[in-house]
Amino acid sequence: MYNPNDKNDEHLKVIPFLVEGDFYFSIAVKAFQKRDFNKAIKWFKRAMELNPKNPLYPCQLSVLYTEIRSYHKANQLLTKVLADFGEEYADCYYLIANNYAHLGLFQDAQKNIEMYLKKEPQGEFAEEAAQLLEMLELYNDEEEEDYEDDDWLFDEEDELLIYQETVFYHLENHEWEEALPILEEMIDLYPEYKVAKHDYAWALFFAGNREAAVELELEWQENDQNSTHSIVNLAIFYHLMGKEELSIGYIETLKNVYPIHEQQRLKIAIALAYTGHYDLAYERFQYLSKGNLRDHVSYFKWYSKSAYQLGLGKLADQLWQEGCRRHPFLQKIGKIENVK
After folding, report:
1. Distance of CA 206 to CAs 214, 280, 327, Å?
2. What InterPro entries does its record include (predicted)?
3. Residue 9 main-chain phi, psi, to 5 deg
4. What is the maximum span of the chain, computed from C-alpha positions, in angstroms?
5. SS3 205
6. pLDDT category, 151, cuts 50, 70, 90?
7. Distance CA 115, CA 287 (A)
8. Residue range 135-141: average pLDDT?
9. Residue 321 backbone phi and psi in degrees, to 5
10. Taking the model in full, what pTM does it have?
């Protein structure tokens, strides 16, 4: 009879418990499902160490990275899977494209989604891939139009630049009554300059004519459903009017929009912060170039506000102090807490 306390039992044999990759992988999946991401990452990596030849492990870890918005890390893993295990893992192309789309790298996203559909036209993600491709083509067309508009701007007279700079100063400093007549002139003189219309609605709203501003934006959006300017303005207008359900509808749209142009990216970040989505706003602000936006009061105002609301006091104070040094308007507000 086996006696566990008998060290001399010649029949006693120690059978080691060999932990394999699947064991840690199952633990990682459970942690992921519970949204305990730190533990999930730890165990996914351990599974990969024990079984580096199983492509399922890095693919699942990439999905986790996508979930926590670490898109670059996700794509590094997926690219390595394609390099190490071959083209039969075509799903990686779809996952890579999805990450690139979140990063605003639409050309890279489109290239990978087309590769996926070429290799797996009836694949597991075929329907989602087709929808993503349609969206990317739509955005690319819009960006081309914006570039054409920009080319037109550079060919215009210096007078337009003077108008732009003057309006920009008034809007950034909340001088709505001063901005409105200038914007009216711009709309008459430069009807192809679309931004002036949306700036006019913005100034009109904050000057007190809220309903008229909303009506204008709704009218313009009906003619251009994908106008980022209209979506941003309406999201903020409805939020400030207490119509949260309407505001959230536009915010949901903005969550999936990643423009190339810095000005539009800033507008989206501001809209997210304005409507209280500080975590999403902070993420967008991180991808903006401060060097290109130092003249924007709104950049410092809403970036610092977002950081403050997320408990990043040191960063918020640094941004606020720099903003106050550059823009006396922020000094009038006084403290970040007063931003609204």
Report:
1. 11, 24, 20
2. TPR-like_helical_dom_sf, TPR_2, TPR_rpt
3. -65, 115
4. 102
5. helix
6. very low
7. 27
8. 68
9. -65, -40
10. 0.56
Q: Domain ranges in the chain?
A: 21-143, 157-257, 276-340
Q: What is the tens place of the pLDDT at every residue in 82-102?
A: 888 876 788 899 899 888 887
Q: Residue 9, SS3? A: coil
Fold matches, 21-143 and 157-257: yes
Are the CB atoms for 9 and 3 separated by under 8 Å?
Answer: yes
Q: Where are the beta strands (DSSP E) in the chain?
A: none
**Which CATH superfamily does the domain covering 157-257 fall into?**
Tetratricopeptide repeat domain (1.25.40.10)
The C-alpha R_g of the chain, in whole angstroms, comes to 26
Task: Say how far apart CA 44 and CA 25 lie, in whole Å.
Answer: 6
Residue 158 binned pLDDT confidence (cut-offs 50, 70, 90): low
Chain-centre distance for alpha carbon 103: 7
CATH homologous superfamily of 21-143 equals: Tetratricopeptide repeat domain (1.25.40.10)
* CA distances to 100, 122, 145, 166, 198 from 138, in Å: 16, 23, 11, 33, 21
Alpha carbon dihedral 126, 129, 131, 137, in 10-degree steps, equals: -140
